[in-house]
Structure formats: structure tokens, C-alpha cells
Write a structure and sequence with these properties.
0% of the residues lie in helices and 49% in strands. With 123 residues, it is mainly beta. It has one domain: Jelly Rolls (Sandwich). The chain has a 6-stranded antiparallel sheet, with no helix packed on it. A 4-stranded antiparallel sheet has the order 4-10-7-8, with no helix packed on it. Strands 5-12-13 form a 3-stranded antiparallel sheet, with no helix packed on it.
């Protein structure tokens, strides 16, 4: 058993959200990564895809998630499963918080941009 307490070192700020890494290989998990995402009202993340399935559980507020051209509103208490390698975008019409889980080896890519990017909060 391994108990993880988030610290400031586990927080990554982007222009659109704050990710707080929880379980990850760098923090004692062998296979999975989990993190929280906090998004301020009227913020929209970039279009991107992730190489692994992700499970998002909204714990506060609501998110508009576009995946493969389909838009869903996911509210507090709801969970959405995002398939791997499909373009998605997350928008917060009001402040929101979510808990995310995926395999630890997932990487992101942006349409039209060569290469992949690691998710530092998931490593």
C-alpha cells in the first residue's frame, strides 16, 4: 500500500487549467495515473488526442466535452469515458473540477502538430 499526499510539486498550471497529479509512476503507482483538473469558467482546452483511454468524473460544476465531433455536457457526479486516439476538447461553461484516470504511459498529440507530448502530472 502506498499513500500519496499531493504537494505543490505535483501541480501543473496551463493557460486553461490546473492539474494536480495524484497516483503516477513517479509517486508509487505501477500502472495507473490519476489527477484532478480544475478549470475556471469560460476556459477551453486545446483540441488534442491521448493515446490511452481516459475516465473523467466531474466532481464540481460541469464540462462540455467534444469527442469525435460529438458534444456532451457532463455534470457533477457524472463520468465520461474518452476513447484513445480520438480528438477531444474540454470546455468549462462555469468553474469545474474533475478526477481523471488513465494508464500511466499515455501521451498527447495535437492535430496538425508533429510528435507527442507527455502529460507531466501523469508521470
Amino acid at each position: 500500500m502506498h499513500v500519496i499526499t499531493p504537494t505543490a510539486e505535483n501541480v501543473v498550471e496551463s493557460p486553461n487549467a490546473r492539474m494536480t497529479g495524484l497516483a503516477a509512476p513517479s509517486r508509487g503507482s505501477a500502472e495507473l495515473s490519476t489527477w484532478t483538473v480544475e478549470i475556471e469558467a469560460d476556459r477551453t482546452g486545446p483540441e488534442h488526442s491521448v493515446s490511452r483511454e481516459q475516465v473523467w468524473t466531474v466532481t464540481e460544476g460541469a464540462l462540455h466535452i467534444t469527442c469525435a465531433g460529438r458534444i456532451e455536457e457532463v455534470g457533477a457526479g457524472q463520468t465520461v469515458v474518452l476513447p484513445p486516439d480520438v480528438v477531444r476538447q474540454v470546455h468549462a461553461p462555469r468553474a469545474a473540477r474533475a478526477h481523471v484516470a488513465m494508464r500511466a504511459d499515455g501521451v498527447a498529440s495535437v492535430p496538425g502538430v508533429e510528435g507527442t507530448r507527455v502529460l507531466p502530472w501523469a508521470r
